[in-house]
Amino acid sequence: MVLQIDGLTGGYSKTPVIHDISFNIGHGEIVGLIGLNGAGKSTTIKHILGLLRPHSGEIRVGGLTASEDIESYRRQLAYIPETPILYEELTLKEHIQMTAMAYGIDEATAMSRAERLLKIFRLETKVDMFPTHFSKGMKQKVMLICAFLSHPDLYIIDEPFLGLDPLGIESLIELMVEEKRNGRSILMSTHILATAERYCDRFAIIDDGRLIAIGSLEALREEFDMPGATLDEVYLRITGGGITND
Ligand SMILES: Nc1ncnc2c1ncn2[C@@H]1O[C@H](COP(=O)(O)OP(=O)(O)OP(=O)(O)O)[C@@H](O)[C@H]1O
């Protein structure tokens, strides 16, 4: 297992926001973290990143907890936030170099991996420019390049498809599938269920801070007795959504 979450209760203050969440991610698995606004997806992700301490329960990445060895723990992860985090004083090339340093990758390896990624995301002519001046989608691509450069065991991607143009989305999906084939794993939170349905092996559905379902689309269809349903349909049923006249 790459990620093991066992009975995680946590949040920002003494009052927990997420309650007793347990699920695992195996090698080469893509798992969608799905839930309504405020359901607890980002909070769960912050716990996995080691930014919040569990009130109770445990999170292991590659068998390690964050409190055992935070640096080794973090090197196994790459996080791509929904809002890009970039350094004003660094060029794109320097962002790449800094990422390589943080992950202990030598510069030659990093630059050869980066060259391919820069081409894929059409930023190869922009390496000496400052990404804080890039467009929103271009900034997101910088975050993606830095993440895919580091070849972590587990990618955590927040809303990967927002802000990218169709070519960018296609490239990202190809990279995700390639990494999956290499045995690397991805946890992505998304509201774009039609795309998630096509690429995720399993879905962890969070509602009001609790994990209310987990499984492949086929398993969810069976569990909720909805043969042939789309992820959207299953999800609306599970969360009691949709507009009714009651
Ligand atoms: N920094 C914070 N301090 C205190 N409470 C927070 C903080 N961030 C989020 N929360 C609360 O935690 C709960 C879960 O929020 P969270 O951001 O995890 O939801 P989400 O599922 O990621 O939602 P969205 O789809 O809107 O991004 C909400 O009730 C929210 O108000």
From TrEMBL:
One of its GO terms (molecular function) is ATP hydrolysis activity. Keywords: ATP-binding, Nucleotide-binding, Transport. It holds the Pfam family ABC_tran. It comes from the Bacteria. Residues 3-233 form the ABC transporter domain. This is ABC transporter ATP-binding protein. The lineage of its organism: Bacteria, Bacillati, Bacillota, Bacilli, Bacillales. The keyword ATP-binding applies.
